[in-house]
Each structure stands twice: as structure tokens, then as C-alpha cells.
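Trying the structure run again after the queue cleared.
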Amino acid sequence: MERGNLSSLELYNIPRVCKMCGGVMIFKGVGEYQCEDCNAVDYDDYGKVRCYIEEHRGATAAQIEEAVGVSQRTIRRLLKDGRIEVAEGSKTFLRCEICGKSIRSGQYCPECEIKVHRNLEAKQREMLHKNEHGFGMEQKASEGQKRFKREN
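Done. C-alpha cells:
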């Protein structure tokens, strides 16, 4: 997943400085951060969306955006990254990027995910096999032996 020059830490607006006292925010888990000085709690985009979804099951991206201020684009990224999923029974859904089948989160349906991983594994095996001989070691073993054979 290419995201330009943004690091994964910048993707979800992670709070680093406390809004209350200016202290350092420490990650506590599941999108939650706590100030090491005044113990104030803040959330990154994932934490805000998750907290809202827990209280408002089946909320749409537009409703979430309006309530917590996280853009629909970021919400779609959370869905594609598999961090949240579309509620069961929802009329909206994602589509597999390969076959178009309806999915609740991620980029691929389970069947296509398996194919993608198998293809990736095959490519890695192929690269490993190509590099098996090391640098400049493509010569046949007998040629190497002749080079170092001592003549009496």
C-alpha cells in the first residue's frame, strides 16, 4: 500500500502533545493516548472512530465524519487497512479489488487474499532461488575446482 511520503504515524493524526498542559502523550492502546504529566486522555483518528462506532453501531461514514471530525477518506483508509469493518446487515459495503465481491473490510475477499499471498510467496521463492548461488558463483563446480587444482 503506497501512501506517498506520509509515515504510518501521520496517517491517523496521532496526538503527540497534550492539549491541556503541553506534556508528552503516551500510547495506551486502541487509539488512546494519555498525557504523562496531567493524565489527560486524547485519541487518534482510529480511536475516535472506534469509540463512536461502539456507541452508534451501523453509523455511516458521513455520520461519523460529522460527529467526530474524521474525514470520510480516513474512514475508508481504516476500512481498507482492516482496522474497522462495515457493520453486518449494512446496505453499504466494500468491494474486493480483484473480483468485485462484497467485503466488510480490507482490500480483498478471503479467496483473492489467499491468491495474492500465494503469488507473493511464489515471487519470493523465485527471488530466493535466483540469489541462491551468491555473487559471481554461477560457474559450475568443476570449473572452480580446475582453477584451484595444484599441479605438481
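Confidence is low (pLDDT under 50) at residues 1-9. Worth checking whether this holds up in the mutant runs.
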